[in-house]
Write a structure and sequence with these properties.
Strand content: 15-25%
Shape: elongated
CATH class of the largest domain: Mainly Beta
Distance between the termini: 57 Å
Largest sheet: 4 strands, antiparallel
Radius of gyration: 20 Å
Oligomer: single chain
Order of helices and strands: EHHEEEEEEHH
Helix content: 40-55%
CATH architecture of the largest domain: Roll
Strand order of the largest sheet: 1-2-3-4
């Protein structure tokens, strides 16, 4: 039996509030500064804060406390437990360039008749550089054994994820640079 990281609760429910609280506090302090350059910086920081908020919401909405058992993937939340059979797993991948890195898997929800995704954070000691963590390797092995089409499903590219985040963040970064005065000479 393999479990997701014990920091999942902190990372999903506490970290976003600390991160956004610090960001918005800095915006407030700079905005109320007597220095006009700081006010310009605060205007630019609003766009970065919007991007961070969007990114955190997207990243954390599917983050779950999970456990890989012999029967399937057990997803735990405050009020219920759900067992996802390995035969319904479509693909599993991870985003290498973040820490803690998240593992995302897509599965077919037989009750609702739709495909869903969930993410988990692997335990820190099971992370091995760019290789699969222990739980991810176990899920891949079980899914391949229970679902003959598992390896033929299109796996999302970690490089594509990085490119997507970069492209989505570019407009926010340009607006930040513009409003904070860094692009005034161009």
């Amino acid at each position: 039996m393999h479990k997701s990281s014990s920091i999942t609760f902190f990372f999903k429910y506490i970290f976003p509030f600390l991160m956004m609280g610090a960001t918005y506090f800095n915006i407030y302090v700079f905005w109320n500064s007597d220095n006009p350059e700081n006010v310009d910086l605060a205007k630019g920081m609003i766009f970065i804060a919007a991007w961070i908020t969007f990114f955190l919401v997207q990243m954390l909405r599917n983050l779950k406390n999970t456990e890989a058992t012999e029967e399937g993937i057990l997803v735990k939340s405050f009020h219920k437990k759900q067992l996802i059979p390995y035969s319904t797993v479509r693909w599993i991948t991870r985003f290498h360039l973040s820490n803690p890195f998240g593992v995302t898997l897509k599965y077919y929800d037989t009750k609702e008749g739709t495909e869903k995704t969930l993410s988990y954070l692997p335990q820190q000691q099971s992370q091995k550089g760019l290789k699969d963590d222990v739980m991810m390797a176990y899920i891949k092995e079980k899914a391949a054994a229970h679902n003959p089409d598992f390896s033929s499903y299109e796996q999302p590219s970690p490089g594509k994820n990085l490119l997507l985040i970069t492209l989505l963040g570019l407009p926010f970064m340009l607006l930040f640079l513009y409003f904070s005065g860094f692009l005034q000479g161009f």
